[in-house]
Amino acid sequence: QVQLVESGGGLVQTGGSLRLSCVASGRTLSTYAMAWFRQAPGKEREFVATISGGRGSTTYADSVKGRFTISRDNAKNTAYLQMNSLKPDDAGVYYCAVGRSYSVFDSHYDYWGPGTQVTVSS
User: Fold this and answer.
1) Which residue from 14, 81, 99, 120 has the least number of CB within 10 angstroms?
2) Which DSSP string do the residues of the chain spell out, in sequence order?
3) How far is 66 from 78, CA to CA, in rounded Å?
């Protein structure tokens, strides 16, 4: 069983930055995809970014391209999401997910963290 714990969320002003971390335990995940999704109040959960196992290929939602960077440290079983130039629309609960498939669809991920809150003040 894989357990995921996110951290790094908080309150930031528009234009500010945050770095989220997702620490995994229970299994070595170097061959698994790791992803970030987010959910704002009253909205469906949406894809943010994913990074593949192995080569570390990345895919981003159009809304965050050029502002967010996903990375991973396999030795630490950890994924990161560097978020720059934050906007109020980026606010929400950010979830880390792990799965065998490198995908933008949440249904393709098997394990989820409890989430970390990101608030962006205007």
Assistant:
1) 14
2) --EEEEE--EEEETT--EEEEEEEESS--TTSEEEEEEE-TTS--EEEEEE-STT--EEE-TTTTTTEEEEEEGGGTEEEEEE-S--GGG-EEEEEEEESS--S-GGG--EE---EEEEEE-
3) 22
Closest to 34 measured CA to CA, from 55, 59, 48, 53: 53
For residues 56 and 30, the answer to whether their CB atoms sit within 8 Å is: no
Q: What are the tokens at 57?
A: 């290929």
